[in-house]
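User: Please predict structures.

Assistant: First:
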Amino acid sequence: MTKFSQHFIFSALMFVVQTTYASEIAKDKNKSGKKPDTKESVDSPFRISKETTRILEPVHPDAYMDYVAALNESANQGVKPEDNAAVALNLLACWSKKESDEPMEEIWFNIFDRLNALDLMKSADSPIFVSYYNFNNHEDLELTARVISENKYKNALRIDQDLTHSTEVEQYLIKNKHVVEYLINEVSKPQFFDPIIMPVIPFGSYNVTKYKQFAELLLLQTRYSNSAGNQQDAIKSLKALFQITRHLKCSKVFLDRHTGFYFNVKASQLAATMIQSQNISPETLKQISILLNSEERVPETWQFVDETHRFELLQIIQLYYLGLHKSDQAEFMEMPNTDRLDSLLASQKVDWDSSLIIANSMIDELVKLAITKSGMEYREAKRNFKNTYFSDPMADKMIKDAALITASRLLRFKDSEKRNGKFVGTFFALWMMTETYESREPFLENEEWIELTKVALDIKTYQLKHSKLPKSLNELYKDLDRESPQSIFGEPFVYLVEGENYHLYSKGIDGIAQDGIWHDKIKNGKGISDDIGIYTKQLVNIEAELDTDGM
């Protein structure tokens, strides 16, 4: 074939392509000869802002049209413009799910990440949060729109509103009084969550999961009872609410899990409000703290407590758990540390599990406040804890109390199964925060501290033998810091999980010695000072046992 023939065939093909393309363009042109602007041609009852367009269009080319279509459909269901962000994001998630095999959690994260709005995904008061965590039926936009538009009890569910004089809420609760009573009495029974045994109770006005409805009703009842001054009724409904949300959080269904999380946050906010009430009785305060501890909600709840009240409330609750009445509290607080430890060990009234949680909450709060004041990151704040907060006498006393309680909790367990890595790790986290010799003195003067040290070395030996850490210790890492185990033990204890045994204490008690320097001193039974000579000698003995006998 000649070059002329090749050129002719190529030109003919290009002509056909161009003609076809031009004819398709002509079909889409309007009478004025311009392509229709699909955005302008949509008859929407809403005025779409440029900012909304800017945010949505990069997510998907058709996002703008999908958004307008969603608003048109939602308008018939009563959705207001301020709620439209939730509808749009629901639709985008639904679209993304059809186009992708990724888990819905990943899809949601990617959408918020691309919108540079990850903070909105976690904001409990945001309509986007409500959509994401609570009302998110990805296959049914109409249902989503209907639920979001349900504003009848929206304001009544706000935590800062006085519900005492709300006739609408009162009538709603009277109407469903039988449901509230049933939930309070039956929710603690295992069969309550059995779908076969669970009786059908007429309830509610819209079609969402019954547990979500029950949680919403109990939340409303708790707020109403608390506002009306009925603290004991509020405690009953709050307890039932936590039990339902605990079940939802363990569900295999994504929507149920996040519904449980959402109401857990709301319940914790409410518990914090009740704790800070000026009229709360000591007995009610203790009941709430017991409830929060049983649900492991203490850390989440304290974030909703006014900063100025946290120390006082934590200390009050801690002393309740030590079994001390108000008449005994002042005397206990004036005891020397060593006497306090003996007193705690001798007490038969101490709720040790709860005390440990409260002690950890104290530590967390002090560290968080250190971060707030200094702008440091969490790990840096822990390392600099001494410089930031030990000048505060109250903080100093609380940190010592927390460490003592935790140590006492550990010493109570003599068998290795119960004295697991989680408790040991917690102890060392507290230990490293008490960086002054005076703070550590009660531990150094007690043989039990030596026993705890041996437990720590046993953990290290386990790691060396099996090339992995005990399961409980790994779980602790995941709970407290996913990036590094170092932040749990503090810098001087990095080598508890890395390197040779002696590196556990190679940086010294006061953290000033360098790697290896202390090794010879320990082998010779000599420490930096005579005060800790017994401590270092005991470590030599432990090390020798590990060298010959292992675990």
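Second:
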Amino acid sequence: MENTLLCPTLRPIFELEIARGNEVESTESGWTNCVFSVVMKNRLCHDSVEKFKLPYSVRKWKNTDGHYALETGYLGDKYKHSIAGPTD
């Protein structure tokens, strides 16, 4: 399962999303700035994620470039892993 591949800093977000019924849409690897990415089918529950005590190496990002999927998620700089979902 994707959870075993995702870095430990982002695993709590993944587990939260699975617990609330969200599903993995796709996984990707091989990007320069993000070596492994999990894309969820539905929007992430950002309000709940913000309550986690995530390390400073985890930052929220948002893609607004229409050439790619419009997503919002979190990137763990230490491992270069990401978890995201569709933007509102």
